[in-house]
Design goal:
With 270 residues, the chain is an alpha+beta fold. The protein contains six helices and 13 strands. InterPro entries: Nucleotide-diphossugar_trans (IPR029044).
């Protein structure tokens, strides 16, 4: 989207918001510092606002905190865009500019970055859990009973805008018109959970995506806007593969006949 297009539909500014439990990942902190420096010498979309919404989020208050952030943006600022970024994410300094450039108020009003969740696959037999990275790109699907829901899209093109039925809110850009349309139809319940037909609850971010679909508001993920997700993991032999460029050890020379073995030497970690 061009600067002239942005000015025609709003002030072009981006209200940043994040929820925190009083701690953040270092990768997130470093990414924010770099983004602020980059933004200050480029388009000033973030630093030109009165600062990000820093909302303390205790256990169980995720929905209320996300709704509060959106409500404050709409009611307290004229800013055109809203950007959620979770405090366990890492991202590039130009992430906001790339999301805004890819978005469009009418055709692509909600665009997310490429994020991955950690899905538990079961116990590892040693007190830990087996985890698998899962892209947060979701498409509509029906289960064996014919009920519709979300399913993971495992394959996707690189550096492309992919239209999806759902994604997470960990790195998500929203245009003002999309949030206002949801408010007019559903009230200030952007992230309130909804239920699947079988009674299971839908996560707050996918519930937001479902509300977008009720108004036919398109949702995209930009697979070129990459992130990292800080998670605690267990690693073991099942996760290890020998690197293709691993050096081949040089055999040690045979000691002379009758020589006593010398002391073992510690080998430093590579």
């Amino acid at each position: 989207m061009s600067e002239s297009s942005a000015s025609a539909t709003g002030d072009g500014m981006v209200q940043m918001a994040y929820l925190h439990p009083h701690t953040v990942s270092h990768s997130w902190h470093e990414s924010v510092m770099r983004l602020a420096a980059y933004d200050a010498v480029n388009n000033g979309r973030i630093v030109g606002t009165q600062g990000p919404y820093m909302i303390s989020c205790s256990t169980g208050a995720l929905v209320e905190s996300r709704n509060l952030a959106v409500r404050r943006w709409l009611d307290e600022t004229p800013h055109e865009w809203f950007w959620f970024i979770d405090t366990d994410m890492g991202f590039d300094a130009d992430t906001v500019d790339r999301l805004v450039a890819a978005a469009d108020p009418a055709e692509r009003p909600v665009v997310g970055g490429l994020c991955f969740a950690a899905r538990e696959m079961g116990a590892d037999g040693m007190g830990g859990r087996r985890l698998k990275p899962v892209p947060t790109l979701y498409m509509p699907a029906r289960d064996p009973h014919g009920q519709i829901g979300f399913t993971t899209r495992w394959e996707f093109p690189d550096n492309a805008l992919v239209q999806v039925a759902g994604t997470g809110a960990a790195c998500l850009l929203i245009h003002r018109t999309a949030a206002e349309k949801l408010r007019a139809q559903h009230g200030d319940t952007w992230f309130d959970p909804v239920k699947y037909p079988d009674g299971r609850w839908v996560s707050e971010d996918l519930s937001f995506c479902w509300r977008l679909s009720t108004l036919q508001i398109p949702l995209f993920v930009h697979t070129g806007v990459k992130t990292t997700h800080h998670k605690e993991v267990w690693i073991g032999a099942e996760d290890y593969t020998v690197p293709v460029d691993a050096p081949v050890p040089t055999p040690a020379p045979e000691p002379p006949a009758g020589a006593e073995p010398g002391p073992l030497k510690e080998v430093a970690d590579a």
